[in-house]
């Protein structure tokens, strides 16, 4: 599925709320967070890479190409997205890139399929995932032709907000349902920012296979 769509897992942040380091390498249920994300996301795309700053050796156990941000200084997820769009255009034959954050272990298994369908109805636009009426701008489908405009936005204008670029470019929203777990509802875009979030994800993992 999605062989003509390139994919990137964003794992280049500083994880300050987690106390630093690489939160995507933290263990969840015996595997790394990144393993959880990759096992859901990899089957949905063709060429897949990991977006990460710093020494790629720490991801040596992960069999993915590691792309260092083309913009220095931890410019945020938009820097990873720009890097990945330039990689997709230069090194793959894909005309679109799907993005996923490496701290979101329960991401939808039909994420890319639904983003592609929505983008098809509005060619050239960015398809962005939502749940519960809230945007998840790091979960989106981006046309590679947006890369020049994104470079100008991030480098020349120095604007870092992902949602600001999506709004400027033009977008279509794709709403994803909350997952049921007994009496509870779980957001498939629940992401791990703090040690408490990680503990909550451990509990969710015991109770559901969302
Ligand atoms: N490539 C790249 N990815 C980033 C960067 N900053 C954040 N990300 C990724 O974007 C996603 C959302 O990041 P956040 O959780 O908001 O930021 P974070 O730096 O990881 O964590 P905090 O420092 O606690 O805010 C995560 O998957 C991060 O790894 C960056 O500068 N470059």
UniProtKB/TrEMBL annotation:
<keyword id="KW-0501">Molybdenum cofactor biosynthesis</keyword>
<keyword id="KW-0808">Transferase</keyword>
<feature type="binding site">
    <location>
        <position position="103"/>
    </location>
    <ligand>
        <name>Mg(2+)</name>
    </ligand>
</feature>
<keyword id="KW-0342">GTP-binding</keyword>
<dbReference type="GO" id="GO:0046872">
    <property type="term" value="F:metal ion binding"/>
</dbReference>
<feature type="binding site">
    <location>
        <begin position="10"/>
        <end position="12"/>
    </location>
    <ligand>
        <name>GTP</name>
    </ligand>
</feature>
<dbReference type="Pfam" id="PF12804">
    <property type="entry name" value="NTP_transf_3"/>
</dbReference>
<dbReference type="InterPro" id="IPR025877">
    <property type="entry name" value="MobA-like_NTP_Trfase"/>
</dbReference>
<keyword id="KW-0479">Metal-binding</keyword>
<keyword id="KW-0460">Magnesium</keyword>
<feature type="binding site">
    <location>
        <position position="69"/>
    </location>
    <ligand>
        <name>GTP</name>
    </ligand>
</feature>
<comment type="similarity">
    <text>Belongs to the MobA family.</text>
</comment>
<feature type="binding site">
    <location>
        <position position="23"/>
    </location>
    <ligand>
        <name>GTP</name>
    </ligand>
</feature>
<dbReference type="GO" id="GO:0005737">
    <property type="term" value="C:cytoplasm"/>
</dbReference>
<dbReference type="GO" id="GO:0061603">
    <property type="term" value="F:molybdenum cofactor guanylyltransferase activity"/>
</dbReference>
<feature type="binding site">
    <location>
        <position position="103"/>
    </location>
    <ligand>
        <name>GTP</name>
    </ligand>
</feature>
<dbReference type="InterPro" id="IPR013482">
    <property type="entry name" value="Molybde_CF_guanTrfase"/>
</dbReference>
<protein>
    <recommendedName>
        <fullName>Molybdenum cofactor guanylyltransferase</fullName>
        <ecNumber>2.7.7.77</ecNumber>
    </recommendedName>
</protein>
<keyword id="KW-0547">Nucleotide-binding</keyword>
<keyword id="KW-0548">Nucleotidyltransferase</keyword>
<keyword id="KW-0963">Cytoplasm</keyword>
<comment type="subunit">
    <text>Monomer.</text>
</comment>
<dbReference type="GO" id="GO:0005525">
    <property type="term" value="F:GTP binding"/>
</dbReference>
<feature type="domain" description="MobA-like NTP transferase">
    <location>
        <begin position="7"/>
        <end position="164"/>
    </location>
</feature>
<dbReference type="InterPro" id="IPR029044">
    <property type="entry name" value="Nucleotide-diphossugar_trans"/>
</dbReference>
<comment type="function">
    <text>Transfers a GMP moiety from GTP to Mo-molybdopterin (Mo-MPT) cofactor (Moco or molybdenum cofactor) to form Mo-molybdopterin guanine dinucleotide (Mo-MGD) cofactor.</text>
</comment>
<dbReference type="GO" id="GO:1902758">
    <property type="term" value="P:bis(molybdopterin guanine dinucleotide)molybdenum biosynthetic process"/>
</dbReference>
